[in-house]
Amino acid sequence: MTVLLKQMLAPVHDALAELQEAAEDNRRQGNNLICKGVVKSAPGGKKVIIDIGENTTPPIPFMLPAAGITSHYRCPSPGEIAIVLNFGTGDDFSSCVALCGLFSDSFPFPTENPDEVLTVFGDKAFQKVDIPSGKMTFHAAGGVEFVNTPEVKNTDGEMADKVRPMSGDREIYDGHDHQGDSGGKTGSANQKQGG
Fold it and tell me: Which residues have C-beta within 8 Å of that of residue 76, sequence separation ≥ 6?
């Protein structure tokens, strides 16, 4: 009777074993679906390698704020926190993408003032906007280089608009005089703008 019962239950036993294996597979894949990790490196600046616990991803793409006609590039820094999305839900992390930019002890918030928008570029440059006042501040320890536009040009370190360079405006100011109400002329400017 026991042998007969075992034979009759064998297909059920096999089906349960398959279900248990599938459930374990799903559990393992679910654990790897969304992971928190730390940027290990960014080889070539186009992909990142992320440490997730004892596991390490191969080089995977990282998400940027914009990557179309309008684009923004920023290479993730080693030590930066990242969320890893595993679209293939496999164990090898080859079909993952990294969402970088979470603040951490290594990279804390540059400000905690909700009325500021602050972008910090390393330790030598930043741009800050005070939202209530509308004041915008730029700091660049290495100087600022302007790119020429149809309205404003930078030539040999001198700014110019579509009419003339700033040195031309200084010459006009330094040499100008005023016509008085009685028809007489005043002297030229006693404080010169020229350098």
Answer: 39, 42, 48, 62, 82, 98, 100, 101
Domain that holds residue 64: 31-102
The sign one gets for the Cα dihedral 10, 12, 15, 20 is negative
* Residues contacting residue 85 through CB under 8 Å, at least 6 positions apart: 33, 34, 96, 97, 98, 99
Whole-Å CA distances, 62 to 32, 78, 141, 193: 17, 13, 29, 51
Which of 85-89, 96-100, 172-176 tops mean pLDDT?
96-100
Q: Is residue 76 part of a domain?
A: yes
- pTM score, whole prediction: 0.64
d(CA 131, CA 117): 7
